[in-house]
Amino acid sequence: MTVATLAEAAAIEALEARAWEDLVAACPPGHAARIGLEARWCGPVLVVRCPGGGFDRGLFNRPIGLGVVEPATRAAVADIADGLAATGATRSMLVSQPQCAPAGYAGWLAELGLEPRGAWDRVVRDRAPLAAGDDGSGDREIAVSLVGPDEVEEWSELLAAAYRLDAGPWLRALPGRPGWRHYLAREHGRAVAARSMFLPAAGAVAFLAVDGPVPGVMTADYGPDAAILARIVADGLRLGAAGFAADIEAPSPARDTPAYATFGRLGFRIPYTRTHHTRGW
After folding, report:
1. Span 131-145, pLDDT tens digits
2. Domain 125-277 annotated CATH 1.25.40.20
């Protein structure tokens, strides 16, 4: 693993924050109010909160870029942690990674009663061409298509069911939003996986999100997601993406699951791991 520099990590985290800001902004106001969804900037750090609608989990209740986009302060860390707890979310988290500063950052998390529980491996790719002849589907009949008006319900129902969330109105507001491309994988005519790409403009780095069911977490079948990833990288390169950033959400200490093989085959590398810090669940 080649560890990213602070500047590289800050750029990646800022990219994710921009994607999440846009995701949250897409949610219809009435639905956002009902589930408690909001995204607020605390300086250069975006804090996402959503305690209702089944979203009470770390992915939807966390700061993005804390201690990376600029050095954190003890007061900021405490304010963000307390603000997340005040929403009623019981599964919020703060994140650490090797680039976090200052040196006392991890100690501040511990002082707040936050303990390491879980992690994500960040994966990134540059604009190098794809190797020819690999669409990710192997010998399976997996078809990947962009989500159009006729597929919105099928796509949104697949994701809402995978995460068990009250997400229908939010998801249905995403297709057609500038910068976003949503993909659906079908096998034998049945929708089996979804993943999205946020590419705000040619020359930008694409962020991969809105994926489900998550291999290694929600399903043991990695094939459909691999097929979508291959299509996304091919499309992103064609559209002028300067690179790609995503996560492996079920990291393996040995890095030997099919997800690592898929991302490696597609030219991704691991610049750092993000560790989740939570209070006892």
Report:
1. 876 666 678 899 999
2. no
Please name every residue paired with 142 in a beta bridge, in sequence order, or none if there are none: 187
Handedness of CA 94, 98, 100, 101 (dihedral sign): positive
Q: Is the pTM of this model over 0.85?
A: yes
Domain edges within the chain: 6-119, 125-277
Q: Where are the alpha helices (DSSP H) in the chain?
A: 6-26, 29-35, 74-86, 105-111, 152-163, 168-172, 223-238, 258-265
Residue at 25: amino acid letter: A
> Distance from CA of residue 14 to its chain's centroid?
13
Tens of pLDDT, residues 185-221: 999 999 999 999 999 999 999 999 999 999 999 999 9
Q: Find the largest Cα–Cα distance for the chain.
A: 54
- Sign of torsion, CA 110 114 62 245? positive
Give CA–CA dist 201/187, Å, rounded: 31
